[in-house]
Specification:
This protein is α/β, with parallel strands linked by helices and about 190 residues long. It contains 7 helices and 11 strands. The chain has one domain: Alpha-Beta Complex (DHBP synthase).
Length: about 190
């Protein structure tokens, strides 16, 4: 895993171009968010999503995504007007909003129930996802049942081994995002 500082990743140089290119190619990255470190890849890369699920040991599918834009969100979900308004108010922020997935949503991240979790972290890293123009899978960096990584030094070696890039923002003291379930048109707050 090639490690770069967040400031280098956000700069206009080689690191930024390399990370944006890696996102578009479906490479796996470890990156900071406004809650905890995440691991992800292009949500349209079924192979990449499968590698992350296998390495985490969770067999998990239906990961959330960091949306590249609000336009992308509204093209890939079905939502009542009241839910759209609340999501517009919440995002960007430390939240995951769960919607019914539209037919065009990336199949690798749609749950068995037909839902998709959407994030737009209030974090500078999100600008790289927007620049790449593709949704990035996002799940906390931990093995099944383990504590999420607060720094790159906490990343389990099984997950570091599958990542091509690691973006270092130091220690993040957050907790996983708060989840709002809006799939039925009713708004429910779920605990994590």
């Amino acid at each position: 895993m090639k490690t770069v500082s967040l400031s280098d990743a956000l700069g206009g140089g080689e690191a930024r171009r390399g990370i944006v290119s890696a996102i578009r190619k479906g490479d796996i990255l470890i990156y900071p968010t406004d809650t905890v470190y995440g691991i992800g890849c292009d949500a349209y890369s079924g192979a990449g999503v499968g590698r992350i699920a296998k390495a985490k040991g969770s067999g998990e599918r239906g990961f959330s995504v960091i949306a590249p834009s609000k336009e992308w969100i509204w093209s890939n979900v079905t939502a009542a007007d009241a839910c759209r308004k609340l999501a517009d108010d919440l995002l960007p922020g430390p939240y995951t909003v769960v919607f019914a997935a539209a037919k065009v949503a990336p199949k690798a991240v749609v749950s068995k129930e037909g839902t998709i979790g959407i994030r737009m972290p209030r974090h500078p890293f999100t600008a790289l996802v927007s620049e790449a123009g593709v949704p990035l899978v996002t799940t906390s960096v931990n093995l099944a049942g383990g504590k999420p990584a607060a720094s790159l030094g906490d990343v389990p070696r099984e997950l570091a081994a599958i990542a091509s890039w690691g973006i270092d923002a130091g220690t993040i003291g957050g907790s996983p995002s708060r989840v709002f379930d809006m799939r039925t048109g009713d708004i429910k707050v779920l605990r994590r």
